[in-house]
Amino acid sequence: MIIKKLIIRADASIQVGTGHVMRCLALAQAWQDKGGEVIFILANKSTALENRLRSEGMKVVHLLVKTGSNEDVNQTVDFAQKFNAQWIVVDGYHFGAKYQKYIKDFGINLLFIDDYGHTDYYYADLVLNQNISAHKDLYQSREIYTQLLLGTQYVLLRREFWQWRDWQRAINPIARKLLITFGGSDPDNVTLKVIQALEGLNRDDLAVIVVIGGSNPHHEVLQKEIANSSLAISLQRNVSNMPELMAWADLAITAGGSTNWELAFMGLPSIVITVAENQKEIATELDTQGIIIHIGWYQQITLEKIGIALQEFIYDQSKRAEMSQKGKKLVNGYGAVHVTSKIANILS
């Protein structure tokens, strides 16, 4: 049997977070399940992230060039040819139309992951937008062969979530177990703001787990805050058991972004604070549909506003139950399987 190889070009850093690489990991895992091999091409070194990828049986190589540049795409194509890869997956806002065209000019199949129509033209074979706000009008300027994979049926969830597809959540009358997670890096330390808001509630009946990624530069500051807190808070870093933590919790406080799809899948009601411009539209739509509570942009959120939202939500069992059901209907956990099937069909 010929092993079909997939190149994934994505980046992670304090500035961009780890979301692009982690959702591509979900795609890579599904590709492995089809008997394929995956090579990640990264521009920035991250020991924790690379250890995770290698532990999953992925190869990792590095570029020493400006991301999104001509040198970037040249080296990416060179790697694809060296590894005899039939497909390249590209995920990141610094990759544009020229980057796509260069890959296609070499006759390599291309999956382009895009969250909001950020380039002026699309040459990829497949364009994936897994968001609730995805619509074809974002991609009017595209090649005739370009297929669009739009909507939450294509949400990319990692392998550790797949065993939870049929799990049913119990909604407790009072939400006493809280999960705080603001992605892999959280450069503005919104996590600290949420912890301080919790401390302002003056409650001793809450159990809190704070999850941070390996790229978070505020680890020591958070450790110090938690050590001096009267709350029962556990700080966990680089976790691989996120589904278990989400199953444990009654309520999450989180950023917008890919974590929202994981929370929806797990039926965990959440309060969302947006920390990037590209999260606002999605968070607003999720709030409108009653799947999350979006309390606004992180720079404009006060400790008091966070506290008020928490205090109300902790006691509102019916609202949490409704949000949980809506979330589970939105994300079914088969997105990575659907996407890899599309790739395999084009190869066959």
UniProtKB/TrEMBL annotation:
- UniProt signal peptide: none
UniProt-annotated catalytic positions: H20 (proton acceptor)
Tell me what organism the protein belongs to: Pseudanabaena catenata USMAC16
Keywords, A to Z? Hydrolase
Where does the chain bind substrate?
A: R158, E262
Magnesium as a keyword?
no
| Domain Glycosyl transferase family 28 C-terminal positions | 182-326
Q: What is its EC number?
A: 3.6.1.57
Q: What class of enzyme is it?
A: hydrolase
Q: What protein does this entry describe?
A: UDP-2,4-diacetamido-2,4, 6-trideoxy-beta-L-altropyranose hydrolase
> From the UniProt record, which GO molecular function terms apply?
hexosyltransferase activity; hydrolase activity
